[in-house]
Amino acid sequence: MSAGTAEAAILRNRPETIPEDAADVALAQSGDAQAFERLYRSQVARIHSLARRMVGPAEADELTQDVFVRAWKKLHTFRGEAAFGTWLHRLGVNVMLAHRGAQAARRRYLDEDADPALVGKTRPPSLELTLDFETAIGRLPPGARQIFVLHDVEGYKHEEIAGMLGITAGTSKAQLHRARMALRRHLAA
Prior knowledge:
71% helix; mainly alpha; elongated; 2 domains; Rna Polymerase Sigma Factor, Chain: A; 0% strand
């Protein structure tokens, strides 16, 4: 969609229903970097929070940056059917899920070459610290953590999660239950 088409779509809306960032979206779609910077500033905290919950604080900064780089490249695909923040959030979830998939593949590859004598010998120092909620979430298995964050933190319904992750709603519910039980165990310890 060209910037002119986006502006026309915006103008067809009643003024009171035009999103505050619609003008910046249209300008950014036409290549205006300053407009994109304003969009960035309005959304960066939300995307960073999502990244912290989905991949942990160690990788949150890098993945937040990756989301905005991808948003700049894909901005031409934004059609205005949803709010820009909603579109960006979904893009962020996709970037983080792809990152987790790549990490899992890398771990499988590295595990094949691991020295069995070293496995389990070292522990990250954070394991000795008192667990807080964020740490407990970080200790969940990747699938359970994704579903917990998407459902309980971000507010997605099981059917939406199922569509995002390519699983059934029942699997989403079961994973959420397991995640909650694991969190209770971690926090009670």
